[in-house]
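Problem: given the chain below (299 residues), write out its structure.
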Amino acid sequence: MGGVDGSIASMVTLESASRELRENTTDGAAVLARRAISLLSSLVAATDDDDLPAVTRRCAEEVRVARPSMAAVGNLVQFWMETFTWPAEDFRHHANAHCECILTLMDRALAETVRIARNRLGEFPPDSVFLTHSASSTVRSVIDGLPFRLLVTASEPGGEGRRMARELGLTCVEDADAPSRVADVAAVVVGADALGSEAFVNKVGTRALAQAARESSTPFFVVTESYKWVASARPVVEEDSFEAVENGFVSAFLGDVRFASFAATRKLELSDDYASAWSESDEQADRVWDRSSNDGFAA
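Solution.
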């Protein structure tokens, strides 16, 4: 996955970092969340020593609210702030190391989500056809290498699905035609930018696919990491290219619970043999996790 890119530290400013996150309409929530943590680290590296903790806090707050419709960005920056010790000594080193810890936890959440989703999708026969909407990096990680055929919607506005189909040599389905194709696939598999107890947020056009899946009794799965959950029933939607879809349309949410102890009260599906696996090399990240309240995120 890779860690924080220190090469851009001398170039990034709070204004440019916030603008980058706001204007990136191509990448999904997981990619932007990772970028937000990397930008925060670069801002810390580029800030003068004078009042560094206060400036770091202000930068974190600005980055946290850059994309309200993508809960992953705000959640992970908030998690960084709440689990950081804010030490008086060697602040810059510890702040950047903490960013690396958060990225490590993200990697673990993705690995667990991929494992859980693959176990479920593995119940389908080889050569099954799945349909996805938008270009979720999480869905892409799940499907990669599996013996299935993936159809991708064009996903306008933005056309990120069309680009992914072209990049991976997949069949692209026009958005207007996608609902009529749902009955012919084994399942619809989408990602999410935010999840609440009553609805999730994804690219506009997801609702039409969910309704078609219900009408045709086609399984409809949402694959997502737990850091995209919010405490509110319906996540914030402030961008026209996103929409909220009721959780009642979802056959199962497939994902980890690393960032959400309250997931047990949600409709997350976990394998019976779920267990966290730690390694000695990740000891520092373990301590970050142990310090967290693990009570979920603010709306």
